[in-house]
């Protein structure tokens, strides 16, 4: 398997992202193992930067903002494993980098569901997910979503929510 650089260990002005590739894929480090075919498709003709917020500093937004400012990518694709609380921070970091810079960054957010399905996520969804009171309101307005959660979440199936708490 090809080795790709990690976000934290990549110089913000490296030619790899500054000149060679104007589209970037920022992906969870486990994605090449979890869904290799999806990863390969997403990585075609893009600079690939991997990150693992579970093993690295989870606040990638400053580094990503510096990379964007220094290299001005045409587009950034963020792809992670759905349901991972660590991977979620990659999506939030790219949104936060755009906010820090005060300029629009063309980006797309994706999650891989059950290691086989690629789903596009609107950047505003990532922003809303940071505000639990808004997520709670959405859940209260659509309580049936809890049943859908039971298809994917072991924490839901085996945890307090499953027991009605």
Please state the overall shape, judged from the principal axes of the Cα atoms. Answer: globular
Based on DSSP secondary structure assignment, what is the total number of beta strands? 5
Radius of gyration: 17 Å
Query: Strand sequence of the main sheet, in spatial order?
Result: 2-1-3-4-5
Distance between the termini: 44 Å
CATH fold category name of the largest domain: Rossmann fold
Low-pLDDT windows of residues: none
How many helical stretches? Answer: 9
Which range best describes the helical content: under 10%, 10-25%, 25-40%, 40-55%, 55-70% or over 70%?
Answer: 40-55%
Structural class: alpha/beta
Query: Which percent band covers the strand fraction?
Result: 15-25%
Quaternary arrangement of the chains shown?
A: single chain
Model description:
- The protein is α/β, with parallel strands linked by helices.
- The chain folds into two domains: 15-122, Rossmann fold, CATH 3.40.50; 131-165, no CATH class.
- 44% of the residues lie in helices and 18% in strands.
- It has nine helices and five strands; from the N terminus they run H-E-H-H-E-H-E-H-E-E-H-H-H-H.
- The protein has helices at 15-20, 31-34, 36-43, 61-71, 85-101, 123-129, 132-141, 145-149, 154-158, and strands at residues 23-28, 47-51, 75-81, 107-113, 117-121.
- The protein has a five-stranded mixed β-sheet, with helices on both faces.
- Helix 4 crosses helix 5.
- The termini are far apart.
């Amino acid at each position: 398997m090809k080795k790709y650089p990690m976000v934290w260990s990549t110089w913000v002005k490296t030619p790899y992202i500054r000149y060679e590739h104007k589209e970037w894929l920022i992906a969870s480090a486990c994605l090449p193992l979890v869904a290799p075919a999806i990863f390969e498709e997403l990585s075609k003709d893009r600079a690939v930067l991997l990150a693992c917020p579970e093993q690295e500093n989870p606040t990638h937004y400053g580094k990503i903002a510096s990379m964007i400012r220094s290299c001005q990518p045409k587009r950034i694709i963020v792809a992670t494993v759905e349901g991972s609380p660590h991977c979620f921070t990659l999506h939030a970091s790219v949104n936060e980098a755009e906010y820090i810079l005060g300029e629009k960054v063309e980006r797309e957010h994706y999650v891989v569901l059950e290691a086989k399905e690629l789903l596009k996520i609107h950047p505003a969804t990532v922003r809303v997910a940071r505000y639990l009171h808004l997520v709670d309101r959405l859940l209260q307005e659509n309580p049936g979503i809890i049943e859908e959660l039971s298809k994917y979440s072991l924490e839901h199936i085996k945890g307090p929510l499953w027991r009605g708490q």
